[in-house]
Amino acid sequence: MNPAAKSHLSLAALAVAANSSRGRRYPEKAHAYRNDFQRDRDRIVHSRAFRRLENKTQVFTRRFSDHFRNRLTHTIEVGQISRTIAAALALNVDLTEALALAHDVGHPPFGHAGEKALDAAMRAHGFHFDHNLHALRMVEDFESRYADFRGLNLTFEVREGIVKHSRDYSAAEHPELGEYLLDQRPPLEAQLIDLTDEIGYDAADLDDGFEARILGLKEIREGVALFDRGYRNAEKRHPQAAQKLLFNEALRSLLDAMVTDLIDSTAANAEAAQAHSLDDVRQHPQRLAGSSAKMEAERRQTKAFLYERLYNSKALHPEKDLAERIVTELFETWMAHPEKLPESYQQKLKAEPLPRVICDYIAGMTDNYALEQHEKLVTR
Ligand code: MG
How far is the CA of 92 from the centre of ligand 1 (A)? Predict the structure, then answer.
């Protein structure tokens, strides 16, 4: 049964209502047939930052095949998983989808390696890089689409969710984020995103890692108990099926188990906390969205397996080294020669320190564009 239906509480009362937004930075007239969060979702889909996700690495830098995820297809998967969960919990599906589609727009090129290198380059000059805060700058400032204002002029709830979807920020360390109710938890719609992101990439990275032949079936079955149980069930049900189809069935059951557990546990947490309203969700000392302790252990095991055997595998070293070299050398080239930055970025130097301007420029790049710039400025 749908958890929203079997819960003793009305989960819908915990949702952000479509007509309840605290509003936009620049007030706009209501749209004739789209609510505020549907408009925000559409603004994100139509942004340049969203389109660039297509050429940003998720895990594999130079795609071994066209079937592997990039940040755009990963984002679409997270969007779908999030919609399913939000609907089952009677939350606001449009707000959830807008947040899922925006969750990776602040990521630099070359996946995790690119992010690490960019952060290290910033730290060498006394700054640091945070992809959540960068995503906020992109939607607030860098997107230039509307005659009336800078940025996308998103609702408060979407901006708050972009900032707080994966962690809380302290008001003492981040006075510039003061407007985002830092002493409160974000709504459940935002709390879900980091969890669905991880479910999405756990399943996807097992899939792509297997397809790339970096992960073997035997080691996945030995290393990920949840997958192994799914595989054994699939073998029983389909004794004649090809190995790859059994693999797919096992992966499907892993994804389904993680999603179902997240839905049930979040409903149970809300009930245990006696949360009757969005305000109760916000005021609760901990986030209410989460998995059961049992599934949390399965999730940790899956993640540890992926780190050891895939993300840190020798097979991905050359790509990671390349990513690090490209980002670091581009950064240092512009530190030494700010006059080589594009004119529009040189203008930004009037308001921002040089490392921040360089960081903003690099963080917005696709993998291809970063490689081209490196070729033009460093290699030659
Ligand atoms: Mg993600």
Answer: 20
